[in-house]
Specification:
The chain is mostly helical and about 280 residues long. The chain is about 75% helix and about 0% strand. It contains eight helices and no strands. Helix 3 (about 170-185) runs antiparallel to helix 4 (about 190-205) and helix 7 (about 245-255) runs antiparallel to helix 8 (about 260-275). The longest helix has about 100 residues, at about 1-100. The chain is elongated. The termini are far apart. The relative contact order is 0.08.
Length: about 280
C-alpha cells in the first residue's frame, strides 16, 4: 500500500507539469501569430503609403518641370519684347533727329547705342560738333555734295536698315543700307549708313570688305561725327587680319585726333593690350 502511494504522487506531478508546458506553448504560439499578423498588416500599409508617396512625388516633379518650362517661355517672350522695344526706340530716335534737322533745331547729343553681341562695342560720339577735316592726317577726297533736307522716305528707309542691324541681321542690313545709299545719295544720314555697312561686314568676320567700307567713309565723309569710331573699327579689322602695326597706327590716330571721344577711350585701352603682346 505504501509503495502504490509512492508511485502515484510522482505520476500526478508529471501530468500537471505537462499540462502547464502545453498551455504555455499555445499561449506563445498565439502571441507569435498575432505579432506576425500585425507586422504583415503594417508592411502592407507601409507599402501602400510608399507607393502613394512616390506617385505624389512624381506628380510634383512634373508640375515643377512644367512651371520651369513656362518660366523659360516667359523669359523668351520678355527678351523678344525688349528687342522689339529697342528697335522701336532706335527708329523713334532717328525720326526725332531727322525732324529736328528739318526744322533747323539742335537735337542734342545722341544717346549711347547699347551693344548687341557685336565683336566690338561702339557708341556714337560724345561730342556734338564733328571734327574738322584738317585734323585728319590723310588727304581727304573731294567734299561730298551738300545734304538735302531730309524726307520722310529718307528717314524711314534708314530706320528700316538700322532695325535690321540691331536685330543682328547683318546680311539684310548690308542690302538695306546699300539700297539706302543708292536711293538717297544726298541724304544727311549717308555717312552713318556707310559706317553701319562697315560694321556689318566686321560682325560677319569679313574684315577686308569692312576695311574698304571704313576707308570709303574716311574718303567721302571726313567730317562725319562717326569718323573716330570708323577708324577704331578699321583698326580692329586690320588686327584680326594679323596687321598689328597698321592697327596700332590707326588707334594712335584716333587718340591723337579725337581725344575726347569714347572711341579714343577704347583705343587707349586696346593700345595697352596690343603693346603688351
Amino acid at each position: 500500500m505504501q509503495f502504490r502511494q509512492t508511485i502515484t504522487w510522482p505520476l500526478l506531478a508529471l501530468v500537471l507539469f505537462s499540462g502547464c508546458v502545453t498551455t504555455g506553448s499555445r499561449q506563445m504560439e498565439t502571441v507569435v501569430t498575432d505579432m506576425h499578423q500585425r507586422v504583415t498588416a503594417l508592411d502592407r500599409d507601409l507599402e501602400s503609403t510608399v507607393v502613394e508617396l512616390n506617385e505624389k512625388t512624381a506628380a510634383l516633379i512634373a508640375r515643377v518641370s512644367e512651371n520651369e518650362r513656362q518660366i523659360r517661355m516667359v523669359y523668351t517672350l520678355m527678351e523678344e519684347n525688349q528687342r522689339k522695344i529697342d528697335i522701336l526706340l532706335e527708329m523713334l530716335r532717328e525720326l526725332k533727329v531727322t525732324l529736328y534737322r528739318h526744322w533747323g533745331l539742335d537735337p542734342g547729343p545722341e544717346p549711347a547705342i547699347r551693344p548687341r553681341g557685336g565683336a566690338v562695342r561702339i557708341e556714337p560720339p560724345a561730342r556734338t560738333q564733328p571734327p574738322q577735316a584738317e585734323r585728319i592726317q590723310v588727304a581727304p577726297a573731294a567734299a561730298p555734295p551738300q545734304a538735302a533736307a531730309p524726307s520722310i522716305e529718307d528717314s524711314a528707309a534708314y530706320a528700316r536698315a538700322k532695325a535690321l542691324y540691331d536685330a543682328e541681321d547683318y546680311t539684310g542690313a548690308l542690302v538695306a543700307f546699300g539700297d539706302f545709299l543708292a536711293q538717297f545719295p544726298r541724304s544727311d544720314d549717308r555717312d552713318k549708313a556707310q559706317f553701319w555697312i562697315g560694321k556689318s561686314h566686321l560682325n560677319r568676320a569679313e574684315y577686308t570688305p569692312a576695311i574698304r567700307a571704313f576707308e570709303s567713309m574716311r574718303e567721302n565723309y571726313p567730317q562725319s561725327s562717326y569718323m573716330a569710331f570708323a577708324l577704331h573699327n578699321q583698326a580692329v579689322a586690320h588686327f584680326r587680319l594679323g596687321e598689328k602695326e597698321t592697327a596700332v597706327a590707326l588707334m594712335e590716330e584716333v587718340v591723337a585726333n579725337y581725344p575726347t571721344t569714347t572711341a579714343a577711350d577704347h583705343a587707349r585701352r586696346d593700345l595697352e593690350q596690343l603693346r603688351r603682346r
